[in-house]
Design brief:
With 368 residues, the protein is α+β, with helices and mostly antiparallel strands. It is built from eleven helices and eleven strands. It has a seven-stranded mixed β-sheet with strand order 2-3-1-4-7-11-8. The longest helix is centred in the middle third of the chain and has 48 residues.
Length: 368
């Protein structure tokens, strides 16, 4: 261990909230689950496999296995359901933990590209020791907020299914919820990644994701996922989805040191699964993105029909195009005619990251 650095075991126990005191055999015996099942749980959480004789588990690990066993005993979840739930926790928390460590390390290091100094590591440990009890409730609070939102969406979907079963006009059969789905894609990202240093590129991507996330949330939509140079968002209503798309395109276009985006949006039934979205509507939105010019929003026929006549919006048909896997489609360009006072306002953009002269804004706008 390098001089001046804290003992890794002490760090691990501090962050785990307890002493490493059990082997895998102990954890299985105390929790009452099988050895095979405990292995599936740890792998789903993303933990490395440990030999049976190694002391690598805490009281918290045993308590987690006991909670999982009770959920199964009470019939809340079966074994496969538990593994799917645990995998969702593990994958989400892995990214969150890396993000937090990188954030703290970047704040305390003179050069974020260099490994943290012993002094920086000591400061991070000190912050964790004093304030981890304040961070943890924030994670639970955010989860409950998102759980409440997801539960509300599930109730709306159930209402749609009930309406379909009763034959109400406009209801969608088979529980497939009508959703507005959009992709926003940074233009010429490959070229930008060649022109910028790694740290500068990371700042551009972070600014893009942060800006898109703020706009989606403020307008009442949901950010489904980020893919570096691309974000996938959704909204329950066509108007909100259209407003999000326009606000993202406009806000990014105003930043001369960040590449423009092109946005494709479609409206139709989707299949929500494991926090993601699947189906023809999602595929169509992705294809529409490729048809859009920098700074523009291209939408499908269903969304165009839903937004036709909306105050402040203008829908213009463009040339019909063949799209792989979807046949001939009729895209339209969505623009503002005059700003709609009733539309949700986009938030102020975060501070633009410093970036050297590079590709800048891509030229363009207007229909594809």
């Amino acid at each position: 261990m390098a001089a001046g650095l804290p003992d890794p075991k002490e760090i691990e126990e501090l962050l785990l909230g307890g002493e490493l005191c059990y082997t895998r055999v102990d954890a299985v015996r105390l929790s009452g689950v099988t050895r095979e099942f405990s292995g599936r749980v740890w792998r789903a959480f993303g933990y490395p496999s440990m030999p049976d004789e190694v002391i690598a588990y805490t009281e918290g690990d045993v308590a987690a296995l006991c909670r999982i066993r009770r959920l199964m005993d009470d019939g809340v979840l079966d074994e496969d359901g538990v593994i799917r739930l645990v995998r969702a926790f593990g994958q989400t928390m892995t990214r969150l933990a890396e993000w937090q460590v990188n954030l703290l390390g970047g704040m305390l290091s003179q050069d974020p590209q260099e490994p943290p100094t012993a002094e920086a590591v000591g400061s991070i440990v000190d912050i964790a020791e004093k304030h981890i009890g304040e961070f943890e409730p924030l994670v639970v609070h955010a989860w409950r907020r998102q759980l409440a939102a997801a539960g509300t969406r599930a109730i709306a979907a159930a209402s749609t299914r009930e309406a379909a079963a009763q034959g109400e006009p406009g209801a969608v059969a088979a529980g497939r919820t009508l959703t507005t789905v959009g992709f926003a894609d940074m233009v010429s990202f490959t070229q930008v990644s060649r022109d910028l240093e790694e740290l500068e590129l990371a700042r551009v991507v972070e600014w893009f994701e942060e800006t898109a996330s703020d706009i989606v949330a403020s307008c009442g939509g949901r950010l489904v996922k980020t893919l570096g140079d691309e974000v996938l968002f959704c909204a329950d209503s066509p108007l909100v989805g259209g407003e999000i798309a326009l606000a993202i395109a406009e806000t990014i276009q105003d930043e001369i040191e960040v590449p423009d985006v092109r946005v494709g949006v479609a409206y139709g039934p989707v299949l929500p699964l494991m926090g993601d979205m699947f189906g023809t509507t999602v595929n169509l939105a992705a294809r529409l993105t490729k048809l859009a010019r920098p700074g523009s929003v291209v939408i499908d026929t269903e969304l165009a029909a839903a937004l036709e006549g909306e105050p402040g919006l203008e829908v213009t048909k463009i040339v019909r195009r063949p799209v792989r896997g979807l046949g001939i489609i009729q895209p339209s360009v969505l623009r503002r005619s005059t700003r709609n006072p009733a539309a949700p306002a986009a938030p102020a953009a975060p501070h633009t990251p410093d970036a050297p002269d590079g590709p800048g804004n891509a030229a363009g706008g207007g229909p594809a």
